[in-house]
Design brief:
- The chain has a single domain, classed as PK beta-barrel domain-like (M1 Pyruvate Kinase, Domain 3), CATH 2.40.33.20.
- 14% of the residues lie in helices and 33% in strands.
- It is built from 3 helices and 11 strands; from the N terminus they run E-E-E-E-E-H-E-E-E-H-E-E-E-H.
- It has a 7-stranded mixed β-barrel with strand order 1-6-5-9-8-7-11.
């Protein structure tokens, strides 16, 4: 369905987060090496879509990947899948909630909070750990209700 474009961790506060060649995700913990790991498990990982970067670029704001604070950057829009599960690199994530824009983005460009309102990324909980690498396939799992409806015959 999609692909992992890049991976990032931030040991300290601030943006952009550093790019990494692989991301080790641990269930109930988050991304190893990221300062948000071990906190609220529902907000352990930030997943962003490349469309957020394109939207900023169209407005004249060129950003390096990792600038939005994401751990995973995908070639699909995670905002369309809130409430669903996403599988990448053997890890299983639950997309929990849209991440609000924060003041940290204004340090990169004062227009970013308005440009990316409800479009910065999605918080995710790690349900099953795994190692994710760039170019790994990403599969969005169907909801149980979708599966039940698909199995019905009229």
């Amino acid at each position: 369905m999609g692909r992992v474009l890049s991976l990032h961790v931030g040991e300290r506060p601030g943006l952009p987060k550093a790019g990494v060649g692989e991301l080790r995700l641990v269930a109930g913990y988050g991304a190893v090496g990221d300062r948000h790991a071990g906190g609220d498990p529902r907000r352990a990982v930030l997943v962003a879509g490349v469309g957020s970067y394109r939207r900023a670029l169209e407005a004249g704001v060129a950003l390096p990947y990792g600038a939005l604070g994401e751990n995973l950057l995908l070639d699909l829009d995670p905002h369309a899948w809130v409430g669903r599960r996403l599988e990448a690199g053997g890890a299983l994530l639950e997309l929990v909630a849209v991440c609000p824009v924060c003041a940290a983005l204004t340090r990169l460009d004062p227009r970013l909070p308005r440009l990316l309102y409800r479009g910065r990324g999605v918080y995710a909980r790690v349900l099953r750990g795994g190692v994710v690498r760039p170019d790994d396939p990403v599969e969005v799992q169907a909801l149980e209700d979708d599966l039940a409806l698909a199995g019905r015959t009229n």
